[in-house]
Structure formats: structure tokens, C-alpha cells
């Protein structure tokens, strides 16, 4: 580009020790919790100078799983990117689904609705399959025999 502009010269670069790299800026940058994140992410809570996910914290306490996650324990890593990553995480999405399913009355759940739409013969057939699967599990038998036993049940 400079060769096309008459009289233009490249600027003098500072020695690398005097230049502040992006990494240096990120290391020394002081981050604060942004209150506007609460409007974007309704599950996000901020208490005692840490932010956490209210949904994951409750579900984690119930299941005794994922208790060491940053958004369960609470984190002061106030980066929007970390909030976004948590929002997209598999654990968070699963806990959101569990929370929504438990907040609905059981008669309005998707499973209850599916059961209502089944015909009586389908319902009985499904009940037999569940009993077979239960019996296999209780007797520690291989699940490979499940389809064979189901064929025998239909006969
Ligand atoms: Zn979460």
C-alpha cells in the first residue's frame, strides 16, 4: 500500500517490550458484573460478588452432580463469553429441560399427553414391553434378548 502513495514511509515500530499486547491488556483488565446480563439471561444470579446459574445450582443440589461447575459454585469470571458458553452448555440445557418438565403438572407433561393418545391395545403392548425390560434388568440378563422375548410375547 505504501508504494502507491508518494512520500509515504512505514511507521517506526516500538520495541516489543514497550508494546502492550492484547494478552497483556486482557490479563490486567478489571472486569465487573454487568447488570444488563440479568435481563438477557433470566437464570443468571449475582450475589456476594459472584454470579451463578440458579437453575443449575438447584438441579445440581438435587442430583448431587456437577457441583464443581463454576456456574454452580459461583464464579467471579465476569466475562460475557463465559456466560454465553454456560448458556450453550449441555449440562445447562439439560437442567433447564428438567426444571421446565418439573414445573408442569404431571397431567400436562409430554409423557402424559402421549399416553392419552395411545389406544388401549398399544398401551397394553407397551406395558408388556416395559415389564419385559424391567424383568431383564432385575435378573441381570442381557438386553440383547429383549427383541426375541418381545416377538414371543406377540405370538
Ligand atoms: Zn445453568
Question: If you had to describe this structure to a student in words, what would you say it looks like?
Answer:
There is one protein chain. This protein has 155 residues and is mostly helical. The chain has 2 domains: 75 residues, no CATH class; 37 residues, no CATH class. Helix content is 54%, strand content 5%. It has 9 helices and 2 strands. It has a two-stranded antiparallel sheet. Bound molecules: zinc ion. The site of zinc ion has 8 residues, from helix 3 and helix 6. It comes from Dreissena polymorpha (Zebra mussel). It holds the Pfam family zf-C17orf113. InterPro entries: Znf_C17orf113, Znf_TTF. This is TTF-type domain-containing protein.
Summed up:
The chain is built from 9 helices and 2 strands, in the order ααββααααααα. By secondary structure, the protein is mainly alpha-helical.
Task: Give me the secondary-structure topology.
Elements: H1 22-28, H2 37-40, E1 44-47, E2 50-53, H3 54-63, H4 70-73, H5 80-88, H6 90-103, H7 110-117, H8 120-138, H9 146-154
Helix pairs in contact: 3-6, 8-9
Bound molecules: zinc ion.
Zinc ion binds at residues 43, 53, 55-56, 71, 86, 92, 95.
List its traits.
single chain, 155 residues, mainly alpha, 2 domains, two-stranded antiparallel ribbon, 9 helices, 2 strands, 54% helix, 5% strand, elongated, binds zinc ion
Radius of gyration: 29 Å
Bound molecules: zinc ion
> How much of the residues is beta strand, in percent?
5-15%
Element-by-element helix/strand order: HHEEHHHHHHH
Quickly count the helices.
Answer: 9
Distance between the termini: 82 Å
- Strand arrangement within the widest β-sheet reads 1-2
Mean pLDDT: 85
Largest sheet: 2 strands, antiparallel
Stretches where pLDDT is under 50 for at least 5 consecutive residues are: none
Tertiary shape: elongated
InterPro entries: Znf_C17orf113, Znf_TTF
Protein name: TTF-type domain-containing protein
Organism: Dreissena polymorpha
Domain TTF-type: 29-108
Amino acid at each position: 500500500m505504501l508504494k502507491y502513495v508518494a512520500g509515504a514511509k512505514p511507521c517506526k515500530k516500538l520495541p516489543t517490550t514497550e508494546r502492550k499486547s492484547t494478552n497483556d491488556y486482557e490479563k490486567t483488565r478489571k472486569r465487573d458484573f454487568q447488570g444488563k446480563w440479568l435481563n438477557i439471561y433470566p437464570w443468571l444470579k449475582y450475589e456476594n460478588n459472584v454470579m451463578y446459574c440458579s437453575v443449575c445450582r438447584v438441579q445440581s443440589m438435587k442430583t448431587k452432580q456437577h457441583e464443581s461447575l463454576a456456574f454452580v459454585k459461583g464464579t467471579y469470571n465476569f466475562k460475557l463469553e463465559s456466560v454465553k458458553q454456560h448458556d450453550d452448555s449441555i449440562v445447562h440445557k439439560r437442567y433447564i429441560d428438567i426444571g421446565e418438565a418439573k414445573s408442569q403438572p404431571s397431567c400436562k407433561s409430554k409423557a402424559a399427553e402421549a399416553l392419552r393418545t395411545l389406544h388401549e391395545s398399544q398401551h397394553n403392548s407397551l406395558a408388556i414391553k416395559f415389564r419385559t425390560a424391567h424383568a431383564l434388568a432385575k435378573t441381570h440378563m442381557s438386553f440383547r434378548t429383549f427383541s426375541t422375548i418381545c416377538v414371543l410375547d406377540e405370538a
